[in-house]
Amino acid sequence: MALPTGLDALIEALRCLPGVGPKSAQRMAYHLLQRDRQGAQRLADSMQYALNNLRHCQRCNTFTEAEVCERCLSPKRDHGLLCVVETPVDMNMMEQTQAYSGLYYVLMGRVSPLDGVGPRELQLERLLARASDGVVREVMLATNFTNEGEVTAHYLGEMLKSRGIRVTRIARGVPVGGELEYVDPGTLAQAVRERKTLTE
Amino acid sequence: MHRHKVDGQPAFVLHSYPFRETSLIVEVFSRDFGRVALLARGARRPRSALRGLLLAFQPLELGWAGKGEVQTLMKAEWQGGQPLLSGRALFYGYYLNELLMNLLPREDAHERLFNVYAATLRRLGESLRESDLRCFERALLQELGYGLTLDTDVAGQPVDPSAFYAYEIERGPIRLDQAGASALSVGGKTLLDMANDDFSDPRSLLEAKQLMRTLVAHYTGGKSLETRKIFMELQEL
Predict the structure, then answer these.
(1) Are B55 and B79 in contact, with CB atoms under 8 Å apart?
(2) Could you tell me how far CA B93 lies from the centroid of its own chain?
(3) Which homologous superfamily does the CATH classification assign to the domain defined by B4-78?
(4) Backbone phi and psi for residue A6, each to the nearest 5 degrees, phi listed first
C-alpha cells in the first residue's frame, strides 16, 4: 500500500538525521503525528527559526544569531589569545576546562587530503584575516591529535608564523589521573618523545 | 569467496571513513593480503579501544574475519617503534596512501611493496627527503607490473648519461637529437640515477619528479591527485 505523500515525505526527510534509517524514520514520523503533535510543531518552528536566524559569527565562525557572537564581544575575555578548534563541540569542551579565557576560531572541519578537504573548503583565509587584526598576540592550535588535525595544525602554524604571530600547540601526553600501567602504548610512546626538562 | 579468519597480520591504515552511527570502514594495506576494506564496529564510540588506534602511518597488527568485500575487524594491536609523522612528512605519507588507494587493486598481496612502504614511512619519520617518494613510486610501478626501463633505450642501446631521451610510456627511453625536443625529455644521467635510486643530483631529482608525475597520471587514468592539489593550495597561503 502506498503511503500518503505527506507522510512519505516526512519519513524521507527524517532520514537526513545521522543514524536514522528507514525504520526509525517511520517510527519518529508516526510518533510525532499520533502522540506528540505539539512537539512536532515546536520542532518545525525551532528548525525554521534556526535556519533563518543562525549564521556564522564574523569573528569566530561559530553559530550565532548576531553578526558577532556574545563571546567575541565580551570585555572579560582576553582578546590577545585566539584558540583554533575544529568544531563547536570542541569549543564547548575547551570552555568546560575553565582554563582558557581567550577567544576562539572554529574551523568547522579539518584539512583532510584524502577526502579532498583543503584550505579552500575551510576558507582558511578568513582565519588568517582574523588572526592578523593586530590585537591577537598568540594563536593556540587545539585541533585534534589525529593525522588530519596534525596536518591542519602544521599548516596553520607555518602560515601564521610567517606573518609574525606567536603560535602554540596544546600539549599531548598521559591523561590526568592516568596510571602508566593502563595508558595505551601509543600515547605513552609519544609522551616519551615529547618529554620536557624539569625546571626550577 | 570463502569465509576466512586472519590473525596477527602486519598492516597499515591507508584511509578510513565513518560508517553508520558509530562504526568505521578502514582501508588497510596488509602484508599478506594486500589492500582490504574492514568494518571496525563501534570504533567511533567514545570509549572504544579502537579509537585512536586505527591511525594511518603507524604499524599495526590486525585480525579480521568474514567474507565478501568488506570483512569485520576483530582485533588491532599497536606495534609502534616509530614516531608519529608530523608536519610536511604527513603530507608525503598522505601522498603514498593516495597512490596505494588509487593504484593497488583490492586483495592482491604485495609483500615486497609492503616492506618498501613500511621502510619509507620509517624514513619519513626520521628525515624528510623527496627522494624517498621517488623510490617508492618506482617500487610501486615495478610491483604492479609497469616496471620502468631505465638503463637501455628502445633501440636496445645502453643509456648514455650525456644524451637526452624522451620517455615513452610502456616502451622506454627514445634517444633525442637535442634536449627539450619532447615534453617528456629527460637526461640520460637522470635515467641511470633513477635505476640506482640515487637522487643526490638535484637535476636528476627534479627530472625524475616530472617523469614520475606523468607516469602516475597515466596509470591513474588522468585522475588528478587530491593530495597534490591540496598541497599546492597550502603552499599558496
Answers:
(1) no
(2) 8
(3) Nucleic acid-binding proteins (2.40.50.140)
(4) -60, -45
Task: Report yes or no on whether pTM surpasses 0.90.
Answer: no
- Per-residue pLDDT tens listing for chain A (200 residues): 577 788 999 999 999 998 788 899 999 999 999 999 999 999 999 999 999 999 999 999 999 999 999 999 999 999 999 999 999 999 999 999 999 999 999 999 999 999 989 888 999 999 999 999 999 999 999 999 999 999 999 989 999 999 999 999 999 999 999 899 988 888 899 899 899 999 87
CB-based contact B20 A116, cutoff 8 Å:
no
Give the Cα separation of B69 and B146 in Å (integer): 26
Please list every residue in chain A whose beta carbon sits closer than 8 Å to the beta carbon of residue B50.
Answer: none
Could you list the beta-strand ranges (E) of B49-110.
Answer: 60-66, 70-78
Determine which helix (DSSP H) or strand (DSSP E) holds A139, and give its type and residue range. strand A138-141
Kindly tell me the burial class for residue A162, based on how many C-beta atoms sit within 10 Å of its own C-beta (0-12, 13-18, 19 or more). exposed
DSSP-based three-state secondary structure for A30: helix
Q: Which residue has the cell 579501544?
A: B49
ipTM for the assembly? 0.85
Residues in A closer than 8 angstroms to B85, CB to CB, are 147, 150
Q: Do A119 and B98 touch (CB under 8 A)?
A: no
* DSSP letter, residue A21: -
Partner residue facing B91 (CB), from A113, A117, A184? A113
- What interhelical angle do A22-34 and A5-14 show, nearest 10? 120
The letter for the amino acid at B124 is: L
Beta-sheet strands, E only, within chain B: 4-19, 23-30, 34-40, 60-66, 70-78, 164-168, 172-176, 185-187
Structural Rg of chain A based on CA atoms: 22
Q: How far is CA B224 from the centre of its chain?
A: 15
Nearest Cα of chain B lies from the Cα of A10 at a distance, in angstroms, of: 21
